Amino acid sequence: MNRPIDNAIFNFNPNDVQYSNSIIQLQPYLNSLIFGDFTQCSQQQLLIGLQLNQLCSQYFLQQADIVESQCQTQIQNTMNQQKSPIEVQNYQNQISTLNFQLQAYQQQIKQLQLSYNQRNQEYLTLQQQVVTNQDQFKINQLQQEIDILRQQLQQSNQATSCKNNQFQSGNSSTNELNAMKQQYQLLVQENKRLVSLQQAPPYMKQMAAIKQANELIRQENIKLKKQVTQVQGAFHRCQVCFKFFESDDFLKQHIKRRHQPEDTLKMSKIISSYSQQNLVQDQKSVYKENFYVSPIIKQSNQQPIVQEHNQLNNDIVNESGSFDSVLKSLEEIDKKLAGKQLQNVVKDQSGISDKIQKLNEKTDKLLNSISAIEGVSVGELK
């Protein structure tokens, strides 16, 4: 329900001599606050304007709370009173006028609060400055002028409170009834919106899109599995190659003759050719080749070569294990994606159903209240 209006702010008399004199005295500070022109305004005047802004904001809010409390009391006293249709129409016209004034009043409060926030930021930069005796005198003088303005506001508020109470006393029950009807219409619209969301085609499109995305992910996982399998096969062939070259038979049969320069290139070509094939099937052809190994390898007792082959073999085993873990991770991802998004869609639909059920309960209670006030059945209201 909107806050009842305080008409004091709208009933100042600019022709009043005391009011006009006060405005004239405050004109430099008001110009600085309204237009943001600080060239003709000292830093202390900014502080004074900020305090004035804060006091006015507090006073407006206090007066609004007082009027609201009075209207609530009047509503309780007039709930059981019945008005004629003509009186109700007159009160509704008055309500429309007061609502327009209320919007203007609330807009002024918002502007005042915004101005206060802006000036408060400027005030923070002035807190550490020393206040001179002359500035303190100006503060005291402005405080007295503020007190005079506050008294004028109180007097004007007392003069207009009677008229405001007359407007509010006669239409409180009608205003409350209209608010209940508006709330009922909002609940009906929200109910229709949720029902349309529950039955809307985009949910079916979303489910189809999720299925299509899951299928694409599954196909990508199959491709990745094939690639991992191919890499594992390559590592396996390399592992067989290393085991063959580090075997005792290879070393005993081929480290026999002296080194010849042209045999080094021939040996590298043979190793390169067998690294691209299955060495298990072609071991016999390796034994038939005539090539020589450098005597340097024989002098080192083959220990560095064996250690290097062992290290490479360990690296191959470790990499093969990491690819196995990749395969397992891909399988787990594939299982999790098979229907996870669809479960979320079903969960969202159940949440919407719960909201619709709660809205229906609120709507029924509100219809019963309106029918009791107007003496009309629930079916006629629908």
TrEMBL record:
One term of GO molecular function: zinc ion binding
InterPro entries (alphabetical): Znf_C2H2_type
Keywords: Coiled coil, Metal-binding, Zinc, Zinc-finger
Residue stretches in coiled coil: 88-159
Residue stretches making up the C2H2-type domain: 236-264
Highest taxon in the source lineage: Eukaryota
Keyword Nucleotide-binding: no
Protein name, per record: C2H2-type domain-containing protein
Organism the protein comes from: Spironucleus salmonicida
